[in-house]
Amino acid sequence: MATAESSRDGVAAASGTAWNPFRRNGPLIAPQPTVLAAIAFAGLAAAATTVALGLTSDELNHVAIRAFLNDWITLNFILAGLIAWWRLPDSRFGPLMIAAGFVNFLATLSWATADVPFTIGIALGMLPSSCMCSSRIRAAGCSEGSNARSS
């Protein structure tokens, strides 16, 4: 019985290239303006939710500053991702930046007083920094490997 692994190896061996799960299968389609507007609206809702969570939390110090700075990071990543996705739809950099912005919002759920959102926020607490580092590495062109720059 053939498995997916053996079929991938066979295709890679036949084509002479190694199997890469991150390879593009074709050009990405440009996002529709309604999709971009919906994502922008969801980003604004995330920012408003962050402010509401900060105001209802009894354990936060300097709520206004923390909510402002968190919203600043969230909205900047989402807006930059929307612009990048709109301008360069073939690049996955825009959706990665949008994801980094929303992950930053999800980490602020640790400000909630309810159990489930608090647990989600704590579980995702370190994820925003890794998403932001990943987007910066991708922007620098380091994700293609060191051989791509030498040619």
Show the helix and strand layout.
Blueprint: H1 4-15, H2 33-56, H3 63-87, H4 93-107, H5 115-123, H6 127-140, H7 147-150
Description:
With 151 residues, the protein is an all-alpha fold. It has a single domain, classed as Four Helix Bundle (Hemerythrin (Met), subunit A) (Up-down Bundle), CATH 1.20.120. It is built from seven helices and no strands. The longest helix is centred in the middle third of the chain and has 25 residues, at 63-87. It is elongated.
**Given this structure, which CATH class is correct?**
Mainly Alpha
> Largest sheet, described in full?
none
Q: Mean of the pLDDT scores?
A: 77
Secondary structure tally, helices: 7
- Whole-number radius of gyration? 20 Å
- How many beta-strand elements? 0
CATH fold name: Four Helix Bundle (Hemerythrin (Met), subunit A)
Labels describing this entry:
151 residues; Four Helix Bundle (Hemerythrin (Met), subunit A); 0% strand; 7 helices; single chain; mainly alpha
What would a concise description of this structure say?
Helices cover 68% and strands 0% of the residues.
